[in-house]
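ESCALATION

Customer reports they have been waiting on this structure for their group meeting. Please prioritize. Original submission:
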Amino acid sequence: MTNPETPERITTFEQAHRVGAYELARRWADRSLLPMLMPREKAEAAGIPVREVADELEELAVMAALHGWLDGWMPINVHRSLLAGATVEQTATAMGTDPTTMAAAWRAWSAGQRRLWQTYPDMDHTAEHDRVAAILDSYSTPPREPGR
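Update from on-call: job pushed to the front of the queue and completed.
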């Protein structure tokens, strides 16, 4: 369902961010909302609508805002994947990165969550976060040789 307050044209990051991630994903995936991407001369010769400045700005604003939303949500899905039983390697591969980068993103997000719980103690999920931290710590700590 489309939000009735969604502007017809989005040409700034702020407009796009206000629309929300799901509407942005729908807009970006629906290629019929923008004229076909082709050189102006060919489009005009074929009678195809030409992409104008507003079309280019809309696509850029939608992509930038959607990137921001998804980048912020990825650590949440790292968290859920590891709690569900995925390995660190599987989770990093799904994210398209290495385990060290993935762990750093999760740790930054988790630190923010822990600060939030100081204000909203009813939302505290410390035990969950400690479990994920232990999974990541055990992965990043090299195995010890016996007797050391």
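Sent to customer with the following note: The chain has a mean pLDDT of 86.
Escalation resolved.
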